[in-house]
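Many introductory courses stop at the sequence. We go one step further.
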Amino acid sequence: MIENKEELINCLENGGVIAYVTDTVWGLGALPDNEKAVKKIYEIKKREPQKPLILMSNEVYNLLDYVKPIPKIGQKLIKKYFPGALTVVTEKSNKTPDYITSNMPTVGIRVPDNAVFKEICAAIPNHVLATTSANLSHQPSAKTYEQALENMTGLADMIIPDYGCSAKGLESTVVGVMNNDLKIFRRGEIKIDQDLL
């Protein structure tokens, strides 16, 4: 589907920032181990430094090295809702740099259910992106390719077409799982099934 994978990999390996579709809204991402590229995301968005990024991949096992063992309640949520519009915030491991988490001890992880996004992650080194939504801070998230172009042309190094796999336009639900307690930080597309808790 994606035509220019080599260009995409070169862009990211050289510290580039890419814009891409997910199942919820459009994202802006960089390789997590490239501090300069991650800082560029903050510059592009004019994002407050105290707001962390999250980590996304095409498969949950690519994300497990970046977090400490996930509490049982988090594992249940992942089993039921990944891939999908759920971000699970849990304790990070030493592999997750502080510049991604704004020096917080936790990090959000997510596996979007979108074929183009999955293909991007399958192609790139380590298959993980440090990411946030493709818009300027305090502006609405981009929900279409046209909005992503409008928001990110001249800012992102590459804007990858959605090839017809469009975003649904509703942000992910964000839940924190620490010590088997669950806290909902943002209500989004997914309604958490209370029977799981």
